[in-house]
Structure to design on (144 residues):
C-alpha cells in the first residue's frame, strides 16, 4: 500500500511548509528533487534549493498557512488541491511588500519514489494574487 504512505509524506511536507521546518525536509524529499511552478523563472533542483525556498516563503509571506483541501493518492503520485493564507511582507514578483492579507489556491502533483518526493509540479492562482495586491485591476475596475 504505497499510496497511503505517499499521501502521509505529502501531508508531512505541507506541515513542514507551514512551520518552516527545513530540517525535516531531508526525510521527505529525494536529494535530487525537481520543482516546477509557473512563477518560478526556472525549475528548482535539489534539497538545498528547496530549503532555501521554504525560508524565502516564510520571509515573503508572514502568518503562512497552507491547507490541504483535497488529496488523491494513486501509485507514485499524490495530487493536492490546496489553499494558502498569509500576509505579503516582502518583495514578490517584483511587487514591494504591501502588508495585505492574501489568499490563493492551487493544485500540485507530487511524484514520489521510495516514499520520498522526487518531483513537484504545480499550478496556482497568481492572477488572483495580483488582484489582491493591487498590481492589476480586477475586471470592471479602473487601473490605479
Amino acid at each position: 500500500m504505497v499510496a497511503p504512505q505517499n499521501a502521509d509524506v505529502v501531508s508531512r511536507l505541507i506541515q513542514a511548509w507551514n512551520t518552516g521546518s527545513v530540517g525535516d525536509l531531508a526525510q521527505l524529499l529525494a536529494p535530487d528533487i525537481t520543482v516546477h511552478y509557473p512563477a518560478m523563472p526556472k525549475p528548482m533542483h535539489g534539497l538545498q534549493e528547496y530549503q532555501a525556498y521554504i525560508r524565502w516563503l516564510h520571509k515573503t509571506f508572514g502568518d503562512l498557512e497552507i491547507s490541504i483541501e483535497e488529496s488523491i493518492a494513486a501509485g507514485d503520485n499524490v495530487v493536492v488541491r490546496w489553499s494558502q493564507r498569509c500576509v505579503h511582507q516582502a518583495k514578490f514578483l517584483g511587487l514591494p511588500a504591501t502588508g495585505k492579507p492574501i489568499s490563493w489556491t492551487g493544485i500540485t502533483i507530487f511524484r514520489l519514489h521510495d516514499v520520498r518526493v522526487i518531483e513537484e509540479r504545480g499550478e496556482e492562482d497568481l492572477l488572483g494574487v495580483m488582484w489582491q495586491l493591487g498590481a492589476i485591476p480586477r475586471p470592471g475596475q479602473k487601473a490605479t
Q: What stands out?
A: The chain has a mean pLDDT of 94.
